[in-house]
Design brief:
The chain has five helices and 16 strands. It is an alpha+beta fold and 313 residues long. It comes from Petrolisthes cinctipes.
């Protein structure tokens, strides 16, 4: 998932306002010769027609959903191979043996035990008592300390209360489960685990039906992980709550040419995929309840590797 941060390359309304001149109240009218006069009615009508066709195509495809993994299924392993995009072309020689040559997506309900997922859920819930977004999407990053608070982020490791919320066992459990996901991804995609590195951002997410307050709360936009973070090669999500029981909405959607494929969150379910544009995706808006997950991201580039988090005493 990816509570997913928006592509930083996309403008977010941060342009400076155009200053108005002191004489802006005056309107200059320029007569257009009749032979070059523009038929605005025709242009507008055609634009409306085009928009109508695009909307029809979009919503028709949006409603065309095929389940890849249902919540009520217990899936030992389910995978599909997809042709790799050209996003990795320049990296094939640089990171030989790691850069995806075999692309696709995979779901396991067998990598993480339900008890382990419950332990991570407890860690996330305790950590988020220290903050929480004013909108519907909150994040907790044990590596950087980033924690949503109101309409911004704080470093939770600077809070005095941090030592009363977490203990060393929490971090050992976190690292143990991360390592299991790391190994599963390396084995499935046929790459060396030693050449695959945990990368930033890796974080817990909590999503509710509260309306967005900032751009960081708008997690539902279609996106490609590698366009947002160029260092990404493999993305995984571990779900900590159940679709249809703990929350409604919030399914993970892969956007494919034929039809969209859905992954319904299930506690302990791991969903992993190559991070390029072959796996364009989004998360449905949560309509009720609370959805918890953890995004665990991997790179082939050692310069973007991050270490396991530690609680300093």
């Amino acid at each position: 998932m990816t509570v997913k941060q928006r592509n930083p390359r996309r403008p977010a309304g941060n342009g400076k306002p155009v200053p108005r001149s002191a004489d802006s109240s005056r309107t200059e009218v320029v007569e257009t010769p009749s032979k070059y006069r523009i038929d605005w009615r025709r242009i507008v009508s055609r634009l409306l027609l085009i928009i109508g066709i695009m909307a029809t195509v979009y919503f028709t495809k949006k409603d065309s959903m095929m389940p890849f993994a249902k919540q009520k299924e217990e899936i030992t392993k389910r995978s599909v191979d997809i042709s790799c995009s050209e996003d990795y072309t320049e990296e094939l020689r640089q990171f030989q043996g790691c850069t995806p040559r075999k692309c696709g997506r995979v779901v396991w309900d067998s990598v993480v035990r339900p008890s382990e997922a419950s332990a991570l859920l407890n860690i996330a819930q305790r950590g988020l008592t220290l903050g929480g977004s004013a909108g519907g999407a909150s994040i907790l990053d044990l590596h950087s300390g980033a924690l949503s608070q109101g309409n911004a982020f704080i470093n939770m490791y600077k809070l005095d209360a941090i030592k009363t919320v977490f203990n060393q066992d929490d971090f050992r459990i976190y690292s143990h489960i991360k390592n299991k996901i790391h190994q599963a991804i390396a084995n499935h995609f046929g790459i060396s685990q030693d050449g695959l590195y945990l990368t930033h951002p890796t974080f817990f997410s909590r999503i509710t039906s509260a309306p967005p307050k900032t751009i960081h709360d708008e997690y539902w936009h279609p996106h490609v992980d590698k366009e947002t973070y160029e260092s990404f090669h493999y993305t995984s999500l571990l779900y900590l709550t159940d679709y249809g029981q703990d929350f409604e909405g919030g399914r993970f959607i892969f956007i494919d040419k034929d039809s969209n494929k859905t992954v319904e969150p299930r506690r302990g379910r791991v969903s992993a995929f190559t991070s390029g544009s072959e796996n364009l995706h989004y998360v449905e808006p949560v309509t009720s309840g609370t959805r918890y997950a953890i995004t665990v991201s991997f790179t082939c580039d050692p310069t973007h590797a991050i270490t396991d988090p530690k609680l300093t005493t």
